[in-house]
């Protein structure tokens, strides 16, 4: 958890525990041991505030286009982190699950899909991909199914009861622009905004898909985003039906309207995929985990999306970027913090041509010139513009991102073996200290620590 997050109904921010240091660790360890022993958490933790957030797509007046985020007690989230750390030692999640897993990220899933598609294009063979969408995945998880999956995963009964207590008598109110609703009980689904929910959902998906994964090895999951790949249309259609049956018989639901099919290196007469007699929408491109993949292997659409995302981010901070009273150095920092990450997202998995790299850099220079109040008529060199704003070349930053991710993959260790679950074990201060330290958001390894010689060759020392 980062600082500055919205507080829950108890109005106690996580910064309180960060500031109190050892005193907080001692108090929380004592509190959590009492909760673990009694299997009952404080009643105040059961209350939450549900805030609907617009998804920025579709009709603004349709409730289905909003995502509900729960504001919960920060102290409860620290407790959830402690419980999650213990569950992760016991539960073993399949390799196909990339969502919220240690040493895995969206970059890994995007790269795996892109490299699979590329190999089939190089071999002049067809690859059929179905992108499965689950309707309201978190909200549809039946509670009884969750307890069953926890037990089947080897979680001790005591921790099953502890998690059950987190969901018992949970109450919430909906907060919107015109006020708040009356309080009501929540009896189905996982808590949106909970620190523990992503891992619980991964556990549920792992158990529900245990049988069908064996018949469809080229399947990737990122939480509720599922990609099913196969060499033949008939096989991918059969695998899709198996997944639908396995999920829907346990309370989940596959969206017929949002599930899409794409064929790589398609030959004539490849046909379409059907789901229960209904034709699945066939597309030539798909936005997977925020990155656009195309059936023809091109990345032109993704580059345009990155440019558009960069301009969207720049407009959000245009009040700062266009203020003449703010120094160029500060503007450069704001640009590197807000705009550039949106432009760089997922590009470490893309093979950029010189023309496409130039397209990105042209857009970046336009933003920097706007920020510094100069035009091309002023005949100021691009190097001076970058130096004034302390911004390196975008193409070099893409290559640095690739090196950083490559180093991350090289350092990745084998997943630790699952341990036996302990029925009763007190929460130690060391466990609480570890969680509190994680809340402080440690600094990631920089590219200069990975390969300083490469940085020298790029001649971007001192620029970010």
From TrEMBL:
InterPro entries: DNA/RNA_pol_sf, Rev_trsase/Diguanyl_cyclase, RT_dom. GO terms for molecular function: RNA-DNA hybrid ribonuclease activity. Its EC number is 3.1.26.4. Residues 34-293 form the Reverse transcriptase domain. It is an enzyme of class 3 (hydrolase). PANTHER family: ENDONUCLEASE-REVERSE TRANSCRIPTASE, REVERSE TRANSCRIPTASE DOMAIN-CONTAINING PROTEIN. Belongs to the beta type-B retroviral polymerase family. HERV class-II K(HML-2) pol subfamily. This is ribonuclease H. It comes from Hemibagrus guttatus.
């Amino acid at each position: 958890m980062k600082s500055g997050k919205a507080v829950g109904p108890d109005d106690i921010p996580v910064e309180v525990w960060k500031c109190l240091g050892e005193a907080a660790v001692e108090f929380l360890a004592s509190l959590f041991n009492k909760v673990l022993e009694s299997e009952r958490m404080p009643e105040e933790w059961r209350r939450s505030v549900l805030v609907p957030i617009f998804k920025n797509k579709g009709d603004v007046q349709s409730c289905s286009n909003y995502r509900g985020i729960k504001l919960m007690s920060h102290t409860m989230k620290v407790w959830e982190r402690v419980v999650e750390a213990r569950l992760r030692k016991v539960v073993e999640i399949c390799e196909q699950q990339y969502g919220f897993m240690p040493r895995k990220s969206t970059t890994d899933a995007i790269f795996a899909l892109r490299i699979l598609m590329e190999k089939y294009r190089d071999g002049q063979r067809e690859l059929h991909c179905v992108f499965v969408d689950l309707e309201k995945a978190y909200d549809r998880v039946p509670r009884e199914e969750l307890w069953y999956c926890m037990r089947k995963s080897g979680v001790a009964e005591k921790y099953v009861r502890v998690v059950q207590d987190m969901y018992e008598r949970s109450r919430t109110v909906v907060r919107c622009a015109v006020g708040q609703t009356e309080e009501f009980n929540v009896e189905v689904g996982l808590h949106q905004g909970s620190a523990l929910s992503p891992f619980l959902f991964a556990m549920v998906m792992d158990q529900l898909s245990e049988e069908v994964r064996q018949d469809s090895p080229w399947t990737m999951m990122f939480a509720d985003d599922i990609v099913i790949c196969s060499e033949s249309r008939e096989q991918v259609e059969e695998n899709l039906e198996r997944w639908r049956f396995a999920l829907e018989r346990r309370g989940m639901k596959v969206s017929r309207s949002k599930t899409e099919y794409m064929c790589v290196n398609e030959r004539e007469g490849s046909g379409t995929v059907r789901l229960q007699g209904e034709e699945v929408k066939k597309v030539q491109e798909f936005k997977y985990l925020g990155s656009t993949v195309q059936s023809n292997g091109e990345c032109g659409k993704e580059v345009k999306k990155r440019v558009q995302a960069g301009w969207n981010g720049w407009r959000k901070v245009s009040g700062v970027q266009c203020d003449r009273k703010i120094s160029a150095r500060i503007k450069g920092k704001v640009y590197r913090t807000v705009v550039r990450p949106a432009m760089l997202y997922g590009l470490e998995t893309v093979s950029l041509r010189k023309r496409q790299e130039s397209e990105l850099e042209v857009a970046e220079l336009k933003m920097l010139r706007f920020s510094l109040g100069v035009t091309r008529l002023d005949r100021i060199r691009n190097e001076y513009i970058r130096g004034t704003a302390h911004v390196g070349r975008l193409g070099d930053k893409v290559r640095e991102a690739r090196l950083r991710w490559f180093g991350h993959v090289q350092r990745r260790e084998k997943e630790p073996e699952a341990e036996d679950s302990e029925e009763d074990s007190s929460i130690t201060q060391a466990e609480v200290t570890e969680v509190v330290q994680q809340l402080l958001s440690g600094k990631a390894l920089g590219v200069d620590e990975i390969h300083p010689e490469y940085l020298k060759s790029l001649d971007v020392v001192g620029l970010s």
